[in-house]
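Example 3.2
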Amino acid sequence: MQNRPASPAFTVDIIVYPGFKAMEAIGPMSVFEYANVHLRRSGKPDGYDVRIASIREGQVPSDTLMSLQATKALDLLALPHTAIVAGARDIHRALAEGGAIVDWVAAASPRLQRLAALCSGAFFLGAAGVLDGKAATTHWSVAERLQADHPGIAVDADAIFVRAGHLWTSAGVTAGIDLALALVEEDFGKELALQVATDMVVYLKRPGGQSQFSTHLLSERTARPGIREIQKWILENLHERLSVAQLAQKAMMSERHFARVFLQEVGLSTQEFIAACRFERARQLLADVALPLKTVAARAGFNGEAQMRRVFQKRMGIVPTLYRERFATTGVASAKPG
C-alpha cells in the first residue's frame, strides 16, 4: 500500500460544478462504495470516505436530468487525501464559470496525496499550471485543444489514463472507472480491485496505455458478421504470418473482393488493420514490466525487436523501452514525477 493515511479511510472528494458529466462522478463513486462493501464483508473498516464537493454546498446540476448534493465546499483548510475533478461537455464554459476551482487546484495540488482529473477535467489542472512539464491525457475530442491551450503538457491523446507522480488524468467517461480501480489496487491490492471490477462487470484494468480507439471497437462497428469473424481471428493469431490470400480463403472470397469488402467495412486495409492490432497488442504487453521485449515482439506478431522499435518510433516518436518507462510502470500509464 502507498500513502496510507493515519485514519482508517482514504478521504476522497469528487469535485463537481454545474454541467459536470454525471457518469464521471458516479462511476468512481460506485467503485469506492463497492470497495467499502467488500472490506466490510471481510471484517475490515471502510477504506474510503467519499464526499461530493463543489464551490459551495447544495444541489449541483449535471449534464443529465440528475443533480448531486455537494455536502462539502472546497476549503484549503480541509483537504482530502484524494481529489477527483469531473469533466464537462462544455469545458470552456465550465472553466469560465469555475475560476474558484482552478484557484483551489493550484493551491491544493502540492499538498494533496493524489489529484485526479477525469476526461476534460484535465483543463482545470492545465489552467492551474499543475500539469506543466508532465504527461496527461483527456478525451480524444479535446486533446488537441488541451495541447494548444497548454503547450507545456505532454498530451497523450490515445491513453486510457496517465499517472504523473501524484497527478492522474483519464480519457472520457468510463475511463474514470478504470482510473478509480487503479487507485483501489494501489491502496488495497489487486484482489480487492478484482472483486470490485467483477461486481461492476468491467475489466479489472485496461492498461493505461491502451488506445481510446481499440481494434476491438473497430471490430464491433463492422456490419458484416463474416468480416467480424475474420477480425476476431486476426486478433487471436497475431503471432502468425497473416496474408490477404490466407484471410480471403478463410472468408471464402476472392482476394480482390475480400480486400475491397474489408476496406469498405473497416475503413482500413487488411495490412493496416493487422499493423494497428500488433501495435496495440505490444502496448498492452509492455504494461507487464516482467516480459522481455523479445517476448513482447513475438506475441504481438512483430518480426523481432527491431521491427517493433521502428513501429514505435514512427507512431509515437519513442522506442518501446522508453514507452515502458514512461507509460507502463506498475501496469498503468505513468510518467516520471516532475
